[in-house]
Fold this sequence. Notes:
Elements: H1 3-43, H2 50-69
Helix pairs in contact: 1-2
Amino acid sequence: xxxxxxxxxxxxxxxxxxxxxxxxxxxxxxxxxxxxxxxxxxxxxxxxxxxxxxxxxxxxxxxxxxxxxx
Length: 70
C-alpha cells in the first residue's frame, strides 16, 4: 500500500469520526424518543397506531439515508 493510500484512508477515517460525533446528539434524541414510544406501547400492551408506525418508519428511513450518504 502506498503512502498516499494510507494517508487517504486516515483522512477518510477522521471524516467518519467527525460525522459520528456530529450525528451523536441527534441519534441520542432519536433513541430517547423511540425508546419512550416503544416503552409506552409495551406498558399499554398494544401494537403501534398507524401514526406511531409512521414515526418509527421515518426514524428508520432517516437513519438509513444518513448511513448511505456517509
